[in-house]
Design brief:
Elements (H helix, E strand, L loop, with lengths): L1 E2 L5 E2 L8 H30 L6 H13 L5 H44 L10 H19 L1
């Protein structure tokens, strides 16, 4: 409850019920407040004897501010398109590198499998390539530890 001007209590409206109306009221109040402050500031400048800026001067500042706006919609769209193209090329490049490494690993596995699957005339596995494989594993393990 808020006390009214003439002493009666008046129920305060809920600002969330009609948000558009309250938002419009807030904007209107802010604009009138800014205009009042500007008018008081200009009067104070006149009273103190300083020069008051002309409307043309103020307009010129506004034009400069408008010129400093950012890129237009088409320019932003072009930038976004270039960025997407760059990212797509980057992804394709990474995918190509991954495929190359997968292919190299597959070839190495196939080569090792071929060496380990060699057989003698009687069908027994050759032990030479198997022992060499174990030796390589041991050397890698000790090479990584040191």
């Amino acid at each position: 409850m808020v006390e009214h001007k003439n002493g009666r209590f008046q129920k305060k409206k809920n600002p969330y019920l009609d948000r558009r109306e309250s938002k419009n009221r807030e904007i209107r109040q802010a604009l009138t407040h800014k205009a009042r402050l500007k008018r008081k500031y200009l009067k104070e400048l006149e009273r103190s004897g300083e020069s008051v800026p002309d409307k043309e001067e103020v307009h010129r500042h506004r034009v400069v501010r408008e010129a400093d706006k950012g890129p237009s919609f088409q320019e932003r769209q072009q930038i976004a398109k270039e960025r997407k193209k760059f990212l797509r090329e980057l992804r394709e490049k990474e995918k190509k590198q991954r495929m190359e490494t997968v292919q190299l690993k597959r070839e190495a596995r196939d080569k090792k499998k071929e060496l380990l699957s060699q057989k003698t005339r009687t069908g027994q596995p050759l032990m030479g390539p198997r022992i060499n494989n174990l030796l390589e594993k041991i050397q890698k393990q000790y090479g990584n530890d040191q």
